[in-house]
Amino acid sequence: TVIIGAEIEFYLQDLDIDKFLQHSAIPIINEKGHHQFEVIIEASNDPVYIAYIIDKYIKYIKNLAYELNGTSLFVPKPFTYDYGNGMHLHINFLDNTDSNIFHNKYKLYF
């Protein structure tokens, strides 16, 4: 079984950040950059669902920022002086006992 989760990073610009966070229907977490944020997408065994949610969340964030007269930036490196954005996928492969097939119980690294 394959289990996939995701994290989407983005910047918010030209808007009241507190107002954006108050109006957001999805949980948004502060990231390292100035006005950089992240959305964590819960893991699922349905990759099509994960792709759908990623697309839906990005559109939602863009629309909410627009409604508040601001901008959301999902590009990899919008500012040369600050952290870059990314989308991280967390992928686990489980065996028939729901154990991660890459788990290294002896903590050996090659």
Mean pLDDT: 93
Q: Describe the biggest sheet?
A: 5 strands, antiparallel
Radius of gyration, in angstroms, nearest whole number: 17 Å
The unreliable regions are none
Instruction: Kindly estimate the percentage of residues that lie in beta strands according to DSSP.
Output: 25-35%
Number of helices: 2
- What percent of the residues sit in helical stretches (DSSP H or I)? 25-40%
Terminal residue distance? 25 Å
How do the helices and strands follow one another from N- to C-terminus?
EHEEHEE
Helix-strand makeup class:
alpha+beta
Shape: elongated
State the total count of DSSP E strands: 5
Task: Write structural notes for this entry.
Strands 1, 2, 3, 4 and 5 form a 5-stranded antiparallel sheet that branches. Helices cover 25% and strands 30% of the residues. It is α+β, with helices and mostly antiparallel strands.
Quick recap of the structure?
With 110 residues, the chain is an alpha+beta fold. The protein is built from two helices and five strands. Strands 1, 2, 3, 4 and 5 form a five-stranded antiparallel sheet that branches.
Keywords:
single chain; 110 residues; alpha+beta; elongated
Topology readout:
Elements: E1 2-13, H1 17-23, E2 29-30, E3 36-44, H2 47-67, E4 71-73, E5 87-93
Antiparallel strand pairs: 1-3, 1-4, 1-5, 2-3
